[in-house]
Protein: Amine oxidase
Organism: Aptenodytes forsteri
Amino acid sequence: NMKTVLILLVLALATIFALVCVLLTRGRAPSPCQHQPPEQEDTDGGQSLVFADLTPEEMVQVVRYLQGNLGVQLVDASRAKPSDNCIASVDVQVPAKAEVLRFLDGGGARPPREALAVLYFGNQPDPNVTEYVVGPLPTPAYHRDITVQKYGGKVPYHRRPVTGNEYVDINALIQQELRKAPRFLDACCKSDGTDLAILTTAPRGFKSGDRVTWFVLFHSVPGTGYYLSPVGLEVLVEHGDLHVSCWRLHQVFYNGRYFASMGDLEDAFVANLLEVVRIKKPQAKAVLGSMRPRHPPGSPGPLQYEPQGPRYSIRENRVTFQGWSITFGMNPNSGPRLFDIRYRGERIVYELSLQEALALYSSNCPGGMSTRYLDGSFGIGRFAYELVRGLDCPYMATYVDRHYLAESETPKTNQNSLCIFEHDAALPLRRHFSDSQSLYYGGLRKNTLVIRAISTLINYDYIWDFMFHSSGAVEVQVHATGYISSSFLHGRGTNYGNRVGPHTLGTMHLHHIHYKVDLDVDGQLNSLETQDMGYELVKDPWSMQNTIERPYLRRERLEREDEAAFPLNAPMPRYISFASPKSNKWGHPRSYRIQITSFAGEHLPTSSPMERSISWGRYQLAVTRRKEEEPTSTSIYNQNDPWTPTIVFADFINNETITNEDLVAWISVGFLHVPHAEDVPNTVTVGNGIGFFLRPYNYFDEDPSVDSPDSVYFSSEQDAGACGANPLACLPPAVACAPHLPPFHYGGFLNL
């Protein structure tokens, strides 16, 4: 049967073809460009969501619940007047640590999900700020006023942060007052006032209850930073009354002189009793501080990419990478926060969070000399905008959206405002070339996982980095960039900074940053141990008539909080560790060492009436017992009432025992910045980075990076160019794995 023969022939040919394919592909290595999923599987099961930031849907539900259950009229904060009631912000209320650990480690129930809502009650007989816990989410059914429990009393209304709408009303008042001095403005600035930028200072006055703010005026040129173009005019506005119509301009400063009003300034000018510095309005192409490129683009620089795809894994709010597991989030006020940091399955840190950023200025102008910005009050997390792919972070980094609700009833999204990437530092983590006995080379590249956000706080940009090394170390860094702030150069201005432009004084200032580190080293109960070196004079055992200065190790266990509070400029032991009661293989306490890199000086004399509001700045390191009632070192309310601060960090230190307790390290880092010519147009990150390390110290029995799959070793007896002997020899084919880059897109201007 011819039909049967043809069918058998086709089947035979198909079988032969299949066998040939098998023979040709047998033993062939997978393509060097084939995506390799991370080896570490995520077995979290959604537990990390106990720390998760609120979703936009949850924020909306909280707002709806408050609108329907407080029994008062709430005005949208974006248009609220001081005399209104409004929802200022909504954020997640992280459950108590004991509840969370019962859930994570003890198989207990998941804690109820709750929100923290901050409300301004201006339309009440006793205006105040009230904080509520609202829950359970996603369908709220209750709210609790926790203000008194949290702060020991009601929060006075004058302590509330200034809202965007309040600034709008202040600007309108200033414009109204500027119109009273038209001839002066034309002479000094070639302006009618409407094209001048207005910059706030803080705090606002000299005593509790004050809400009186100096505002500094600058020439504003579209597309450039106005911060380097002061015109010499500053105004003091009193805006504490609930009724905007009662606000008034209190004082005026120009070129070293003070006036009661803009009218008095105009009269002095007309009477020729005023020395006026005539400043032409700068042009966009020649303005001081322009960041526009001066040359056409050159050839592209090096590009970082992963030949076989990312080696980290992100699920919800958790990232895993080569033994690391980190839960990440963003507080709209205080900024980045990490929880439940584990290495090789063991929790190292329960909480690592930014607390505050202080910028304290000097000048011989009132605005500059009175400025002590506490950036948490403005919103470090809220103003972490979209990152620029390929510059702020590597082009192929993973970008994550962050959501917040502040000064509005509608949630906002900062798209792509947090990035996560693996970074090749182009530096060996460790290496050795052996040229004696046996000949070999061994080493390991320094590859780290980086979690980054960048906050723009008026003129400054802070780059927040959290890095995780294969040695088990955590590195925390902050770099400062952006524009310097400046004053109008007059009199002896250079006593307070350097001249950086025709009429511009770059004003000296301090940066102090504060972090909370809740270390749990091999369990919650830790002690604080210090080690340093001393010298002892001993007789040489082999030559008793001679002596030698022998270094020895001084070990000490600190017993109480007062011993563990290290003042800023005092000597501190070079090794400070959180120690577990358990030992490693060699009999030493399993520990993590805190190593600080900082150039901070005195934050403020303790005699200052506002020093207690930033008393965390007294210490380079302070270790206290962990308490739920001491969750943060500062408050957003400290900025506008530093004279009666809502939270005083120094009160946390009360000489309690710190042996075998749940401890928290509070770390301050900072530097002095004296602006100079090279800070124009922008301050560079080079030399302006500070931070700290958390390093394993006898925590392991050996360096855990020995288990890294990236290790390299070859001897003189091997062919170092063979891929099987040396992973570096496998790299040339990976050149063909250049990724398909997604199109560049930036939407950071859309949601301001």
Remarks:
- The longest strand covers residues 412-436.
